[in-house]
Amino acid sequence: MKLFKNRDSINHAIVWFVLLIELFPIYMMLQVSFKDNAEFIKNPWLPSNPETWQWENWAFGLKLITPYIANTLFVAVTGTVATLFLAILASYFFARQKMPFSGFLWSAFLILMLMPGVANLVPLFNLLKNLSLLNSLLALIIVGVAGAQVFNIFILRNFIEDLPNDLFEAAEMDGANHFQQIVNIVIPMAAPIIGTLSILAFLQKWNDFLLPLIILRDKELFTLGVGLIYLDGEYVKQWGQIMAAYFIASVPLIIIFLFCMRLFVRGLSAGAIKG
Amino acid sequence: MPRSIATQKALREWKLYFFLAPSLILVVMFSYFPAASAVYHSFFDWAGGETKHLIGLDNFRRAFGDQVLWNSFKTVSILVVFNLFKMIPSIFLAVIIHRIVSDRWQYFYRIFLVIPMIVPHLVTLFIWKFFFDPNLGALNKVLDLTGIKEVLVQIDQWFGWGVFHANASIGWLSQPELILPSLFIWGFPWIGTVGVLIYLAGLQSIGKEIYEAAELDGVGPFKKFLYIELPLIVTQVRLSLVLLIIGTLQGYGLQLVLLGNAGGPDGRGMVPGLWMYNRAFISGELGYACAIGMMLFVFILALTLINNKYVRVDK
């Protein structure tokens, strides 16, 4: 073992041990997805022979999950873009100018960080009913955007305040209005933090299932969460098909992960130091 | 005069308010209004339609006598203790990864840590539900293979619990006594990716020379943790502590997915949030659900204020 320094080898062993258990569910998901129930009961642990792989499981999963993924992607992408766009506008308002009432408005936002949102669910349901927004994806987007405003504005305001003032003054000299300043200064300078916040917002919307569960009724509108909950409610379970569906549900995140890994690991670390 | 300057500015830059307007309208409509509406409706007997009767404090009186609600508060307190315990592995893992000298390996481990995040949270829950399955689940199989089950049966006979039997498979989510243990076990080894990454970021400010100095002084690994590493991540630990407590008290998605909307056998997994959901959407008592929500709200708000006073999170 010349791979690690001797002193480190215990540490490496511990990390590997933890990682292996941590990744075990993913391994199970993948290998069970190629088996039918009989094969799985006979041999639960090891991957089966590739010749007997049940590709029908994946065909079933694809057919079942793809519409849900499309709905969820629509909600999450639209929601993330709208969340960040509105949050950038609002945080520019707070960060760049001391307008009358801005102190009061800031505390109105900040108080919401302290307020637990759990009691809101029932009135929210009723509000959406009165707006005739039940059973629509638009409701999910709007509520998601509204709920994410406070956190994003809070982080972005700090960030925009730290940008050098000279940049904004120079832009103003050149006759740039506020919106142009946002497009040409704030967005390029804050790109890393905006990227990190976007990923967080996207993940949150992707994982949401409580609100969709009470709002959505039509099968065509189901998002991933609701679809998976209904799949779990089936009486006779074909574990291979279910696991294939689970894996397909993770594919969009895998793609995002491949492209944004660096941004994510770095961004989270940097954001954490700033508080 | 400052006032007139402010007014002038408002007149000149009034368009800026349009930047704030969309966020403000959304927040007022979907955060403030529902909160106010929850307070208002908690005084009504209301099934969601047009008809509602003002019944004063009856909902709250009923809530105070509601045994299910009291038990759910007890359960959620136990879950908070569980989750505090479950914070420890993340802290230790971050410290261990940080102590590894090679930067390349550190980065490599970080990437591996992020991989579980690509699985949607709900899927993780369902896979755990699958692991808990009495006949097919991985948990029972592992316990059988390693012989831990025999030990459990022995202990059971010794204390006379009547929970584990040699010939029957363990029904993790169907035996009332095992609901709380299952809620503890799920997610083993309890590594929170975001938590580990945040702790690692905090630890990064420790230079290598501090470790070298500590080694020259003959400081052991445990003292190193206590005097060098822990103080540097104490802010992050406090922050996750606060978020964790609030999250656990509010949360009920886990219980809904694993145990169903009645909180599992005997309602052992019932938490206040789930009881509110159950009353509102299963039995249609929306007024009473609002009252439960209000009580939970006040409880969490009080805890948050205490937290902010005694557990300072430096911004």
What does this entry show, briefly?
Chain A has 275 residues and is mainly α. Chain A is built from twelve helices and no strands.
Q: Largest sheet of chain A, described in full?
A: none
Termini separation of chain B: 34 Å
Most extensive interface: pair and counts?
Answer: A-B, 87 and 99 residues
- SSE order of chain A, as H and E? HHHHHHHHHHHH
The tally of helices of chain B reads 16
Overall number of structural domains of chain A: 1
List the defining traits of the structure above.
heterodimer; A: mainly alpha; MetI-like fold; disordered C terminus; B: about 325 residues; mainly alpha
Care to describe what's here?
Chain A has 275 residues and is mostly helical. Chain A has one domain (63-274): MetI-like fold (Orthogonal Bundle), CATH 1.10.3720. Chain A has helices spanning 9-32, 37-42, 55-96, 102-114, 121-130, 137-161, 165-173, 178-189, 191-207, 210-215, 224-232, 239-274. The relative contact order of chain A is 0.14. In chain B, helix 15 (272-281) runs antiparallel to helix 16 (286-310). Chain B has a two-stranded antiparallel ribbon with strand order 1-2. Chain B has a domain at 61-132 and 171-310: MetI-like fold, CATH 1.10.3720. Chain B is 69% helix and 2% strand. With 315 residues, chain B is mainly alpha-helical. The model of chain B has no long low-confidence stretch (mean pLDDT 87). Chains A and B meet through helix 1, helix 3, helix 4, helix 5 and helix 6 of A and helix 1, helix 2, helix 5, helix 6 and helix 7 of B.
